[in-house]
Amino acid sequence: MTQHRIAILPGDGIGPEVMDEALKVLRLLAEKHNFEIATEEFPVGGAALDATENATPLPQETLEGCESASAILFGSVGGPKWENLPPDIQPERGALLPLRKHFGLFANLRPGVCHPALIDASPVKNSLIPEGFDVLCVRELTGGIYFGTPKERREEGGEQIAVDTMVYRTSEIERIARVAFQAAMVRDKRLCSVDKANVLQNSVLWRETVIRVARDYPEVQLSHLYVDNAAMQLIRYAPDYDVIVTGNLFGDILSDEMAMISGSLGMLPSASLGSPDDDGLNFGLYEPSGGSAPDIAGQGIANPIAQILSLAMLLRYSLGENAAADSVDKAVEEAISAGYRTGDIFSGLETEKRVNTSEMGNAIVERL
Ligand code: IPM
Ligand code: MN
Q1: Which residue out of 228, 240, 277, 295 is catalytically annotated?
Q2: pTM for the full model?
């Protein structure tokens, strides 16, 4: 029997509650699909700040635990309690960014899916998305303005000056473009590259490089948008898009916009992947797109679907357990079709059953 090791990092807010539901799903899948799972839990984010003596959001023990695993299943980090700490040790910045960099997780896959049964939850008019939409945002995650140097604050001419540097090199653009083209190949074969090539030098290089990589994927229809226009077009008619590929900062912004128009932050998973090994499997970190939602934490009402779908992505990309991953996607689909709704996706229709976190988890487990 294959044995997989997964590092579990529940984190803060609703993280631990939704993680419990994902672990229920995982235990049943291991039984049904005949693989063995070794999970080990580690503190991260605010939970780690509170638990460690030297107050770090990413303790060494957690990092080492992740190093010896095939994948990280991540909950969420952050909350008002830690908001006023120095930026470098704040849960989000001090844990997530170093994890991404340390493990070389350069490819961030963020599906923006508006399920046809949930179009009422979207702030976009029903008439614009009559059948919902399914867009995959492929965001470069370890380069660009997040990590470029110099990155500093200093005094100059008697005032403060702050500098961030947006840097992309050909190799970085090329590898993320390949991830996006390959994703498009198994979807609708349409790829839109988003940049700001009318202003930024690194965007000119971005566009040139994407066009060059496109020669290896002649079946994929490639288009380009400036990021400001992309922000408009996504709201105007999201179903026009299949896969979007973009840099770190633009992807951060556009993926939030996509999450908002999909109407259900609690439904969207994400995967942050490194380069595949010889078997085509990636080390990865998998987390819900939504945050720690401190406003509803501890009440047992959060939507566990994003965490459960993140587990499905983990099964697919890091463990190669594709049948198990498919069954999770299908079970979620069926629970939605059967009318199960947590508060965030409940619109008051008679066909809907309003449920809490563990009831939604159970509805999915029953359908596996
Ligand atoms: C995200 C988050 C992070 C980012 C923050 C918390 C550092 O917004 O994953 O999108 O900007 O990448
Ligand atoms: Mn973000």
Answers
A1: 228
A2: 0.96
Asked whether the beta carbons of 7 and 42 are under 8 A apart, the reply is yes
CA-only gyration radius of the chain, Å: 20
Kindly report, residue by residue over 239-283, the tens digit of the pLDDT. 999 999 999 999 999 999 999 999 888 999 999 999 999 999 999
- Give the residue whose CA is nearest to atom 2 of ligand 1: 252
Q: State the distance from the centre of ligand 2 to the C-alpha of 107, rounded, in angstroms.
A: 14
Q: Could you read off the pLDDT of 274-332 as tens digits, one per residue?
A: 999 999 999 999 999 989 999 999 999 999 999 999 999 999 999 999 999 999 999 99
| Side chain identity at residue 55, one-letter code | A
Query: Which domains, and CATH codes, for the chain?
Result: 1-106+265-368 (3.40.718.10), 123-262 (3.40.718.10)
State in Å: Cα 352 to ligand 2 middle: 31
Question: Residue with the nearest Cα to atom 1 of ligand 1?
Answer: 252
Q: What is the dihedral of CA 282, 284, 288, 291, to 10 degrees?
A: -150
